[in-house]
Backbone:
């Protein structure tokens, strides 16, 4: 059946009942004159509509375009292989492929194709589901839009292997969950690609569940974010779960957990973060938490580019990372791990491989407990800020801008290593900061002048001769029967230097 209509709505089901639209029905609505809303399928309360390989196309040059509208208590089952394509040519209007609203309203589909495009700032939304409704997109659904993939409020969304391609000028969203208690399950092998200024793959301000395996999230554009968790109050607490996924962002944040009601549980997740190429120097964050945000992670990989922070925590946020941790920063003194502020803590336990700098400041704490085969390459520093706003140690300009200069602070790093093959870095503690380095059978290749509160490398090896020039290491409390290697330059009357200021136990 093919229906071509100049009317405002083709199929309107206002009486309760069951209707079967058959296989291969096509609804084609186009107009160049009407300024009113065009709607392909309008399902009122308590109806059951079934179809298979349904095709709905709505193109409104002057007004809004809606493919399907489902109300309270109604169920629409589109079977497999259905297509919904909506467009509007009016910059002041929007297009919406599917609108589902009301208690027990439901959309079911499998292998569904949705396209929603428009003009102006607010363009096309593929699916809007609100008011205790639900959507089950089955397997293989593909969404293309220029504003929002899925908008959800007080509802449920379930999908498996979904692909979203959202490309818009300003504020495009993959999944926009900005109010209510929501349940989101993206199953396995889902892909969300977002491009545009302030692009956001997933924005959660209510309850959210992530996905099972093989997912890919990409975001491109100025201030773009892969996944944003923002639980503002107990009623909007977020517990987001994600496993076996890749988050690839060229923009602002790959994942951001904001406030103490936001928690992300990640397993086997890879992060790729780079700043937006159109705004060099803007900075970017792989994993970031602020104001009490929380992460619980098992097996993490982060690859960070120039001007990027791989793992960052601020203002009372907490990370618990276990298993295999790989953090690879493109720059040796780039921020592989950064913690700043009171009650801020990053705890890492397991096999740890880090290339890049580790910083803790303003009463923040970083605990690293590593197992055999771990390799650390980079600087390890604690930082404090003075009331005059001058950093107490030499840091990069970007770091000065990032650290809050709100008075003297006490910062420390507890670093514990068990049978580590190699630790390469520059370790500094500044009063009243503390850096503790301990390990069994470990190797520390000293890459620069360092200052530690406590050093214990039992059966280990401290290589002060590593790198160019002569290194100076100052330790308050020194213990452990480690081997030491110094280099001496007789011609210049210079050598590496070890200074122990408080206690010595060999």
Residues:
């Amino acid at each position: 059946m093919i229906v071509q209509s100049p009317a405002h709505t083709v199929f309107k089901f206002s009486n309760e009942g069951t209707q079967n639209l058959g296989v291969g029905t096509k609804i084609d609505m186009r107009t160049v004159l009407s300024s009113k809303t065009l709607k392909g399928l309008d399902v009122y309360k308590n109806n059951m509509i079934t179809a298979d390989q349904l095709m709905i196309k709505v193109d409104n040059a002057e007004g809004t375009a809606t493919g399907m509208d489902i109300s309270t208590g109604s169920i629409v089952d589109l079977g497999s292989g259905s297509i919904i394509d909506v467009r509007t040519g009016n910059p002041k209007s929007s297009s919406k492929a599917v609108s589902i609203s009301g208690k027990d309203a439901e959309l079911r589909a499998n292998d569904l194709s949705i396209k929603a495009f428009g003009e102006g700032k607010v363009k096309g939304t593929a699916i809007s589901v609100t008011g205790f409704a639900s959507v089950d997109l089955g397997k293989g659904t593909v969404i293309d839009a220029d504003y929002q993939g899925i908008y959800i409020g007080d509802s449920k969304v379930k999908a498996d292997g979904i692909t979203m391609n959202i490309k818009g000028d300003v504020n495009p969203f993959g999944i926009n969950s900005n109010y209510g208690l929501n349940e989101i399950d993206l199953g396995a092998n889902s892909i969300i690609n977002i491009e545009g200024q302030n692009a956001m793959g997933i924005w959660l301000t209510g309850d959210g569940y992530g996905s099972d395996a093989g997912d890919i999230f990409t975001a491109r554009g100025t201030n773009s974010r892969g996944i944003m968790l923002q639980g503002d109050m107990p009623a909007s607490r977020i517990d987001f779960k994600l496993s076996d996924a890749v988050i690839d962002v060229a923009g602002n944040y790959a994942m951001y957990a904001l406030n103490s009601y936001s928690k992300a549980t990640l397993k086997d997740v890879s992060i790729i973060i780079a700043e937006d190429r159109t705004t060099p120097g803007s900075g970017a964050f792989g994993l970031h938490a602020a104001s009490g945000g929380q992460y619980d992670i098992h097996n993490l990989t982060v690859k960070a580019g120039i001007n990027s922070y791989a793992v960052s925590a601020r203002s009372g946020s907490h990370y618990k990372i276990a298993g295999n941790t790989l953090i690879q920063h493109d720059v040796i003194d780039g921020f592989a791990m950064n913690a700043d502020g009171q009650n801020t803590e990053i705890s890492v336990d397991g096999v740890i491989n880090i290339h890049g700098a580790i910083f803790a400041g303003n009463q923040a704490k970083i605990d690293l407990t590593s197992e055999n085969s771990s390799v650390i390459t980079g600087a390890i520093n604690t930082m404090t800020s003075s009331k005059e706003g001058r950093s107490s140690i030499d840091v990069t300009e970007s770091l000065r801008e990032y650290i809050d200069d709100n008075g003297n602070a006490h910062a420390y790093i507890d670093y514990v290593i068990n049978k580590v093959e190699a630790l390469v870095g520059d370790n500094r503690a500044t009063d009243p900061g503390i850096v503790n380095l301990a390990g069994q059978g470990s190797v520390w290749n000293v890459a620069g002048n360092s200052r530690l509160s406590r050093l214990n490398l039992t059966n280990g090896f401290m290589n002060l001769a590593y790198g160019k020039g002569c290194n100076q290491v100052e330790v308050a409390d020194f213990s452990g029967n480690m081997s030491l290697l110094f280099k001496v330059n007789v011609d210049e009357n210079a050598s590496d230097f070890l200074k122990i200021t408080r206690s010595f136990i060999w």
